[in-house]
Amino acid sequence: MTASGPATLDSVAAHAGVSRQTVSNVLRHPDRVAAPTRERVLAAIAETGYRPSLPARQLATRRAHAIAVRAERQQDGISGLVLDAFYHGLAEAGQDNGLRVLLYAQPEDEAAEIATIDELVHTGAADAVVLTATSADDERPAHLRERGTTFCAFGRPWGHDEPHDWVDVDGAIGTGLAVSHLLDLGRRRIAYLGWPDDGEQPSTGTERRRGWREALASAGLGGAPVEVRSTNDAAAAESAVARLLAGRDAPDSIVCASDTLALGAHRAAVASSGDQVTVVGFDATPVAAALGLASVAQPIDQVAHLCIDLLTRRFEKPLRPAQGLLVPPVLHVPR
Amino acid sequence: MTASGPATLDSVAAHAGVSRQTVSNVLRHPDRVAAPTRERVLAAIAETGYRPSLPARQLATRRAHAIAVRAERQQDGISGLVLDAFYHGLAEAGQDNGLRVLLYAQPEDEAAEIATIDELVHTGAADAVVLTATSADDERPAHLRERGTTFCAFGRPWGHDEPHDWVDVDGAIGTGLAVSHLLDLGRRRIAYLGWPDDGEQPSTGTERRRGWREALASAGLGGAPVEVRSTNDAAAAESAVARLLAGRDAPDSIVCASDTLALGAHRAAVASSGDQVTVVGFDATPVAAALGLASVAQPIDQVAHLCIDLLTRRFEKPLRPAQGLLVPPVLHVPR
């Protein structure tokens, strides 16, 4: 920066004793400039503190150098921190790769979200989007592919035919770890508390349920596993588990598809039998920690970095085959 | 959009039968164009579906039409959802005002953060920044003012001389509501669990503590209020409150400066006396809800909208006097 304000292309050119066009060439087509001139211009850039304008670079490169991600409306809140960590990871990995991270407020529905993404990409505000909360009846991936919009999903393409870049956490491994932990504690009647649709179609819930079933079967306990379903609401989960614990099939432990469900299960367990029923949650939120429950932790920071990684490679090679990456979670056990 | 791709300035001009410069004038200096021509161009814009490129608009207006906000590193996590709601509110209010919201990953320290903000503003990626987590020894506001960077803080200018735009939540009202609630429950020995520095200098903690003291005094209970301090860590808070409850001054209730402290206080209360000691938290996080604790809720969505409001007015009138807005919280009481 000079006394008269930020350095410009012109002041760099004057400093280096070359034309404005030469400075521009050094920045955009360095191969077109002879090495000694290039050196002189780069030195002038360093000495003047010149930084190219982002909008100018965007126009020149026809790229926004930015990706967009949805800021969620508050829902149950308990698992919201997963996204908080995701935002930080995207911003951090984005900075390392010259990509800004733009937030867009969660629109009313999928159609409105697709329109929002179109607008961001069409106006040059973003080059790509990171989709969150994907599901089997998700219309966003197909629409984005049709429009040729670059994207990476946090979540598998659950049953969709056309492949795209995605990163996901292997939920089945997570509930498998939960079962192993309960077996280590001497539990044998290990129930599952899942969501209403788990098992109906490929989904996050289906995978988490599968991990529980397979781990029970591996332990020779796959005979007549007990399970109960609830919407992702602590009060509903509490009622469902209270009925289960009052019945003949009462389990000695419960693996849950979320910490919200685990909160309800924990309340029902405390009400029915003190702490005789062990509850394991999913997402390792502060709520699980506060209740002293073990819970499956998703490596969110890793997921965010991998999403940026896939997008960066996609920008470099738009036609490379779609890639999916599944990362394993770990189990957080309270001390 | 036409069959041959997105509409451009040229295709709009051809459609309207005017020059490219005329279309540009309609967009940037509508007063320079005769009304009938303006109408014709606007109709052509609507018919072709033309949307001006954001980078071009940024260059033309010398504005990024974007603001930056920090994505926090994960800390204790319990109160993180406050920021999650803040991001959504900023994105929503920003969209309503033609402002994008950019995230930057929390840098190592304040100096690095100032450099990051400089870079964002200097390169034209953002016009302004929303500062979070302000404190009395915060160097960011003075540096940003020196550089002429537009900003609005979520948090008061705690003891800083030079004024700037800010929005904050009145924590003293919050702890006052907590005391009223406890008085309604018949509690009389109402202690305070705060942070180590509360009361030393103007800060969030000082204000929360003041609200508790003043409410006790108003109720004629200001004689020898009992208080205890702890770093914002549940285990440390549990130890501090356990000592307090074992002593002669044992309170019948505790107002806490955060839900993290409230978690520790709750654990100590349960261990010492069942549920005889009532604990009230601050931030109304899912942890407080899960434990069945009342907690003070900050109107985060409102704060985000007001920050955008102040920034929008600042862009319009750069020289208007700095403005501070203090909004009241409410108390969330579990059903």
Question: Which percent range describes the beta-strand content of chain A?
Answer: 15-25%
User: C-alpha Rg of chain A, in Å?
Assistant: 26 Å
Considering DSSP H and I runs of 4 or more, what fraction of the residues of chain A is helical? Answer: 40-55%
Structurally, how many domains make up the residues of chain A? 3
Query: Mean of residue pLDDT of chain A?
Result: 89
Query: Would you list the SSEs of chain A in sequence order as H and E?
Result: HHHHEHEHEHEEHEHEHEHEHEHEE
What is the CATH topology assignment of the largest domain in chain A? Rossmann fold
Give the CATH H-level superfamily of the largest domain in chain A.
Answer: Response regulator
**Major β-sheet profile of chain A:** 6 strands, parallel
Largest interface chains and counts: A-B, 49 and 49 residues
User: What is the CATH architecture assignment of the largest domain in chain A?
Assistant: 3-Layer(aba) Sandwich
Q: What is the number of helical segments of chain A per DSSP (H or I, 4+ residues)?
A: 13
What structural class do you assign from the helix and strand content of chain A?
Answer: alpha/beta
CATH class of the largest domain in chain A reads Alpha Beta
